Hints:
This protein is of the alpha/beta class. The protein has a single domain, classed as HUPs (Rossmann fold). The chain contains 9 helices and 7 strands. It has a 7-stranded parallel β-sheet with strand order 3-2-1-4-5-7-6, sandwiched between helices. Helix 1 (14-27) links the parallel strand 1 and strand 2 (31-36). The protein is globular and about 50 Å long.
Amino acid sequence: MIGIFGGTFDPVHHGHLRTALDVYEALGLEELRFIPLGQAVHRDQPQTAAALRLAMLRAAIEGQAGFVVDERELNQPEPSYSVHTLQSLREELGGAVPLCLLLGRDAFLEFAHWHQPETILQLAHLVVMDRPGHDLPAKGALRDLMQTRVTSNIGDLHNQPGGHILFQPVTRLDISSSDIRRRLAEGRSIRWLVPEAVLALTRTYHPGVR
């Protein structure tokens, strides 16, 4: 079973890495693929150049078994839709391998408004990195999508290529990429918010950073 963790990673930080490791271990994933965003559709474009985001992400996960970087969204000229990324992965991996798309709570609450959410659920499971029932709607399109799909059994994810929704508790670290960028702009330290390897790369572009 393979996990898919997308995002701008602008920059990658310990909040991303710790939650990813929690899911990797809890679900018994064979591999967890970090897929940095190319062109955003419904959010602000990444502020940091793709090459630097990619270098920081590679440096951050170096040495962690099962963690890999997948560049496919950076290598396409079109905006990055999750359904297209998953279709590309299915073409590469085949239809039988279980795929788990990792989402935070905020992203999941908007999932019904994503491009082709039903198709996404055919292609992969959703793993919502939050406790069950937290701020979930009592009705509406998202609740309709959840009907018959929510499971608490990790074995269900291993037994099918996609279609389930699992809520997975993770370690919550109150760190955000936007706050890190703000600290950098102000010349403040970002030590212990990001891995040392990421901090070292950041200093190349922000010489005043401590």
